[in-house]
Amino acid sequence: MTLKEIAALAGVSVSTVSRVINNQNTKCASQEVQNKIWAAVRSLGYTPNPHAQSLKRNDLEKSSRSFHSSIAYACSGQFLQGSHHDWEMLSLIEKEILSSHYSVSAPRADLPAAEEKVRDLGLVLVGTEPERRIAQYIEKYKNVVCISEHRTAQPCDLVLLDMSKSLLRAWEYLRELGHRRIFFAGAEKGDFFRTYTDVIPADARAQFIPCGLSMSDGMLLAGELCDCLMVPSALVCENNSIACGAIQALREHRLAVPADVSVVSLGGGLDLSRAALPVSVTVFSYNKAEISRLAVDLLIDRIHRRHLLAVTYEPGCEMDDNGSCAAAREVI
Question: Can you give the residue ranges of the HTH lacI-type domain (predicted)?
């Protein structure tokens, strides 16, 4: 999507679009024109990179900002251990807020009481909430950015973590390696299973094995597959915990990873960078540091009225190759 297309839809010049989007001059156009430009941006799916924009700003603005200006962050009440949203991301968000010269409100899993005066300039919400509850957050905080696996109809900015991207990329990668007997392991009643049924073609759909989200669940699942002689050539796990447990069980059954079985994870669960585990797992997921920067930059842009209409940013999925995948021994 180009600035020229946005300009044509909004009925303004390309230079005006550039100045409004890049915040070079907030008085370069009337509020009506700015609204038209952002409406065109939204309808055409153009998403400016707020982190890149932030690098162009004057350092004086940051140095003169008062630390008494506070930004809150919170975890969804529907937070689930093992999902893409974990406490490491909350820590990264806190660091980004502080590095942007704002103070941080203590995380809160619930809305403030009705009589409490909300002094925070905005809120970064990690996780998925019902539409009604997001609307309540917007009413209280005014400026809200959600980091979620689901879209929302509410007028807030969104960093969308589309699980279908990571799942599809993992599946395609294994197919390129020649794997055809690919199993999927994860919660049966959740986003992972729904995404699996939506993304994997019906004619190539492999077996889905329901299991819990812990390391012990992964060990139990892989052990049962080995005992039943139903060992796949590749296993896609919903999170790192399942993957680590599965690798341990496969090794106990004298199956080598990745020579005999390739194992990948979609992230979440165990923090592989800190866990003292004798296993390594290839992960298809999102860069948490990048997500945190994007969310905080979007919120600060909204606080300073650099954009008014809701913006959705979809970061790319990354592969962290830790050697748990190899070419299939036989291409069926």
Answer: 1-57
Half-sphere exposure of 321 (CA within 13 A, CB side): 7
Domains 58-161+287-316 and 163-285 share a fold: yes
Whole-angstrom distance, CA of residue 83 vs CA of residue 81: 6
C-alpha–C-alpha distance, residues 171 and 169, integer Å: 5
Angle, helices 191-199 vs 163-176, to 10°: value is 50
Radius of gyration (Cα) for the chain, nearest Å?
Answer: 23
235: CB partners within 8 A, 6+ apart: 182, 183, 184, 185, 222, 243, 246, 261, 262, 263, 264
The predicted pLDDT at position 82 comes to 42
Give the least confident one: 6-20, 111-125, 133-147, 204-218: 111-125
Instruction: List all residues 6 or more positions away from 94 whose beta carbon is below 8 Å from its beta carbon.
Output: 73, 104
Q: Residue ranges of the domains in the chain?
A: 3-44, 58-161+287-316, 163-285
H helices of the chain, in order, are 3-10, 14-22, 31-44, 50-54, 59-63, 87-99, 131-141, 163-176, 191-199, 215-227, 240-252, 288-303
Cα–Cα dist 60/271, whole Å = 37
226-231 LR contacts (CB < 8 Å, sep 24+): 226/250, 226/253, 226/255, 231/255, 231/260, 231/261
d(CA 234, CA 263): 6
For 172-195, the pLDDT digits (tens) are 999 999 998 999 999 988 888 989
The per-residue pLDDT for 224 is 94
Task: Give the tokens for residue 226.
Answer: 């080995």
Fold of 163-285: Rossmann fold (3.40.50)
Q: H or E stretch including 208?
A: strand 208-210
